[in-house]
Amino acid sequence: MKFLLAVVLSLSVSLSASAQWYNISFKKHVRYPAIALPQDHSIKKIPTTYISRVKVKIPKFNFQQSDYNIELAESAIMKVAQHNMRFRIYDIASYNFSDLAKLYIKQSRFSEAKWFLLQSSTISRQQNNNQLTIANLMDLAIVKANMGDALQAQQDLAEALQLANANGLLSNVATIQKELKFVQQYKPILTKAEWRYASDAMVTADKKNN
Question: Which positions ≥6 away from 106 have C-beta within 8 Å?
């Protein structure tokens, strides 16, 4: 009996569901176009900016070394030179003397420059430092030309040229030859009365340092 009731109930449910088929519409549905998304073209209204490359001209300034700075440099180099001579570091001391001479040349202190160049050359010859010896001879030529001794200046340059050729320092040959032509036509800028002498130069430096 229970089985019969279950069959009857299932049949009634299936019939009631299938009875809804007449409500299905077979008409063709209208497909509406998709809604277009909003577009923002405001960025196109901004004017295009072009960055131009401008060449900036940097002015060149010529700074002259003051006497005060030269005196400071002189004092510092002198201390190092004295130290190196005291402890027999002669190879470095020869460069110290050459540097001092260059400072004195800038100040037209030719007698002092000559004295220190001779000291530097003495050491550089003993050390077989041909490059420094040639540089000292070239500076000596300029100093002697300014002191009115053009003949000795040319002799120094001739020795420098011979030393450069003998040791294969060909890069110095053209520079020496150019300086030789310059010395032959050079006129001194100071008279003998305007020279500053190098007597007791190291003693003077000791007094300054003490």
Answer: 65, 70
Please enumerate in sequence order all residues whose Cβ is within 8 A of that of 98, keeping only pairs 6 or more positions apart, or say none. 116, 117, 120, 132, 135, 136, 139
| Helix spans in the chain (H) | 2-18, 67-86, 90-106, 110-126, 130-146, 150-166, 173-184, 201-209
| pLDDT tens sequence across 10-23 | 655 554 545 554 55
- Given a contact cutoff of 8 angstroms between Cβ atoms, the answer to whether 176 and 139 are in contact is no
> How does pLDDT run across 145-174, given as a tens digit for each residue?
999 899 999 999 999 999 999 999 988 999
124-136 per-position pLDDT tens digit: 999 999 999 999 9
Among residues 194, 157, 190, the alpha carbon closest in space to that of 176 is found at 157
